[in-house]
Design the sequence.
């Protein structure tokens, strides 16, 4: 059994626990309003989409989500792009993927290498003092490192451990890696989507629904309060999402065909061409169909025995569409929306992103939030889709830079500054202020940089001191960080260079395609 408090340089243990609890940094709403999961701590060992979406929902609800990332690269989705957002701060990266931004708000980032002994120890310690751990590694991966469910249950019997995988923890495919589009292919969604050929849904719905399933299961386990092992996988989620299509096959032997925007069992129900775009409408019952016929000025259509009931309309869908499609093409989306005002059937225009976010209703509900970031002037983010009257749904914490909170979290666990420094020296952890300096190979003036840097060792930081950015800044494709910053890095040293040499080095580094970690 792992000892929760191993022998090592530490602060007083009782004080450390109190400090951790007080510094657990639950996401409290604006004005100090509590959120439903305030006080709940989540260790997030997930990457890409399904897991991060799950943990983001928990964070939105007030949980303190600590995202464990591998040193150097972090979550794979940090590099998914373009598009990227520029990062202006002491970060290993000078840009951040907007894919990552969309799935990681309200979290803290800690760089820990769990493949190494001290990294595993930190994960165990965090799990021992948390309520939830969620991970999305191939089954058995964390067990081999001594941080699987059985290992962590010995430390914290009330831990809710959620494993998100591609195909589950049993069966011949359990060791296979899984992605959204693969699960959608195998689970029948892609075959049922599109018109003539199988199509991928524009967003990773299988990933997102898996995250939704996982977050709901975690909440249920927390409510029960006795600890739990939850298995959630992409393929099971995808099959469960097939609902009526799966039921039709299992019970009636009915194979699915591709319906495009149409509905297999409801008519009319699809996107219709108008004079300036497309308008989607659906009539789910006969009352709605009669209302539709009245508004398009052919009430007699509803009395026709070929269309009097939904079953009749499904049987005669092509005949019905030949009647109503030419009528709908005569007016614009805006004109039809005015005509359909107050009707009992749902309808709406097919919008692009610009139209969707400029919609007056979307503006009124405030789901798009402007957030002032420490590393960028401002980010626009689509906030939580649900609101709590007593706590709101404001975004409270920017998506984290890689390792932004490493020192903060380790200190709150009771690790001494000296011990954290020793871990850093062994590359067991990597806080934001630690950099990997790569040797630059340049010609001409760039030889100066190469000779100055030589084979600088991993973790060192060189600061070229300067008074201001060069006047020809427009020639520089990317500026990493402004100058004259204070660094807390024992390995750092400054080079005071003559003016012309500073400018030469500035241009050489910033115009290079080498991924250097210089701070100028």
Sequence:
């Amino acid at each position: 059994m792992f000892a929760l408090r191993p022998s090592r340089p530490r602060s007083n243990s009782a004080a450390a626990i109190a400090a951790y609890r007080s510094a657990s940094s639950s996401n409290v709403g604006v004005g100090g309003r509590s959120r439903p999961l305030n006080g709940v701590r989540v260790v997030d060992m997930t990457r890409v989409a399904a897991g991060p979406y799950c943990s983001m929902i928990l964070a939105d609800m007030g949980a303190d989500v600590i995202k464990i990332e591998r040193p150097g690269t972090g979550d794979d989705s940090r590099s998914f792009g373009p598009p990227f957002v520029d990062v202006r701060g002491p970060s290993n990266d000078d840009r951040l993927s907007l894919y990552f931004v969309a799935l990681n708000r309200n979290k803290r980032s800690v760089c820990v290498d769990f493949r190494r002994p001290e990294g595993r120890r930190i994960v165990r310690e965090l799990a021992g003092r948390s309520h939830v751990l969620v991970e999305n590694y191939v089954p058995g991966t964390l067990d081999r490192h001594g941080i699987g469910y059985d290992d962590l249950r010995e430390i914290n019997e009330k831990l809710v451990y959620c494993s998100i995988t591609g195909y589950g923890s049993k069966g011949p495919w359990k060791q296979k890696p899984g992605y959204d589009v693969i699960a959608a292919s195998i689970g029948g969604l892609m075959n049922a989507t599109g018109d003539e050929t199988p199509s991928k849904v524009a967003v990773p719905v299988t990933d997102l629904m898996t995250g939704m399933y996982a977050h709901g299961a975690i909440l249920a386990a927390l409510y029960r309060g006795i600890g739990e092992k939850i298995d959630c996988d992409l393929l099971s989620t995808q099959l469960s999402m097939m609902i009526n299509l799966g039921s039709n096959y299992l019970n009636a032997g009915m194979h699915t065909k591709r319906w495009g925007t149409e509905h297999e069992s409801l008519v009319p129900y699809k996107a219709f061409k108008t004079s300036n775009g497309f308008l989607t409408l659906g009539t789910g019952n006969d009352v709605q169909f009669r209302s539709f016929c009245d508004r398009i000025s052919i009430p007699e259509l509803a009395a026709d025995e070929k269309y009097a009931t939904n079953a009749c309309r499904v049987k005669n869908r092509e005949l019905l569409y030949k009647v109503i499609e030419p009528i709908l093409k005569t007016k614009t989306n805006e004109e039809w929306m005015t005509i359909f005002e107050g009707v009992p059937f749902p309808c709406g225009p097919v919008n692009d992103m610009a139209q969707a976010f400029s919609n007056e209703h979307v503006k009124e509900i405030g789901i798009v939030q402007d957030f002032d970031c420490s590393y960028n002037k401002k980010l626009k983010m689509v906030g939580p889709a649900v609101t709590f009257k007593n706590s709101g749904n404001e975004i409270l914490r920017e998506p984290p830079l890689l390792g932004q909170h490493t020192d903060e979290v380790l200190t709150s666990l009771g690790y001494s500054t000296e011990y954290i420094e020793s871990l850093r020296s062994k590359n067991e952890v990597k806080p934001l202020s630690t950099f990997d300096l790569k040797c630059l190979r340049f010609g001409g003036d760039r030889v100066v940089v190469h000779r100055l840097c030589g084979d600088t060792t991993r973790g060192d930081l060189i600061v070229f001191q300067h008074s201001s950015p060069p006047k020809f800044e427009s020639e520089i494709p990317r500026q990493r960080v402004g100058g004259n910053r204070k660094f807390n890095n024992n390995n750092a040293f400054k080079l005071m260079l003559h003016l012309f040499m500073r400018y030469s080095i500035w241009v050489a580094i910033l115009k290079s395609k080498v991924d250097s970690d210089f701070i100028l």
In short: Residues 205-224 form the longest helix (20 residues). The CA atoms of residues 446 and 508 lie 6 Å apart. Confidence is low (pLDDT under 50) at residues 1-23, 433-504, 509-520. The longest strand covers residues 64-69.
